[in-house]
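pinning this so it doesn't scroll away 📌
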Amino acid sequence: MQDPLEEYVVNLLKAKGEPDTPESRSALLEKANEAINKALVEALPLEQLTKLENSTKDNQVDDTTIEKLLTEVGADPSKIISDAMNAFKNEYMKGTK
C-alpha cells in the first residue's frame, strides 16, 4: 500500500502530465514534505518553538511532538497539513515548485 503523501504526489505528476519516474516522484515528495513541515513549524507560536527547540536532539523533530505542541495552542494540525498540501499543489501546477 502506498503512503498517502506519495499517492498525492503521483496524482500531482499525472495531473500536470509529468513523467512518474522514481526520480521525479522522490524529488516532488521531498518538496511536498518540506512544504508541510514548514507550514507546521510556522504555525507554532514563539513559546512553542522554544519548547520544540529545547526538546529536539540533533535537530531531529518527530511529527508527534509538533502535533502535540500545535494542539496545546488550539491549532488543528490536520487543517494546517491540508492547507499546506493545497498551497503546494497550486504552486506546483503553476510551475513555481
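📌 and the second one:
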Amino acid sequence: MIVRKLYHNPHSRPDGSLETMNLTRRRLFAALAGGSSLPLLVGTDGVSRVGAGHTASIDTSDDNSYLSLDGAALREPIAESEATITIDSQLEEVTVTTLNASAFEFDPTPPISLEEPVSVEVTLTDGQTGVVTDTVTIELEGPNVRAVVERPLHVEEDTVVDS
C-alpha cells in the first residue's frame, strides 16, 4: 500500500512547487511505533527507583501466617467502643512503622514491635458519623523484609442515648 501525501516545502524548490512523498506501510508503522514509545521515555518521572530480583509474598490467610490481621471491624461494621484490630507476625524483629487511615485514629501508634500480638484500638476521627469505611494501611519493616498491607475497616459511631 502506498499513500501519496502532497506537502509544500519552500526550501527545497525555489518556485514553491508541490512535491510528493511516498508513505509506505512500513514508514507508517515505524512512525506510529516511535510516537507511542515517546510517552514511555518522557512519562517515567514518577518512578524514583526501579529494582529487580526478589519477589516477596506475605501470607495473611490463617493463624500460622507471616502476618495476620484479626478483628470483627475488618469484616463488618463494629461499634466504635468495641473496634479493635489485632496484628501478629511470625517474622522475627518486625515492627509496624505505618498504621494509617484518614477516617480513623489508632492507639497505640507506630512504631509498634510485633514480638507478640498487639491489639490496636480504633476510634473515629473528629467529624465522622454513622458507619464509616476506610482503607487501613499497615506497613511492616524488619531486617530483611518490608511489607505493606491494605484492608478495609468498618466502624460505626457509638450512639449516645439521652435519659
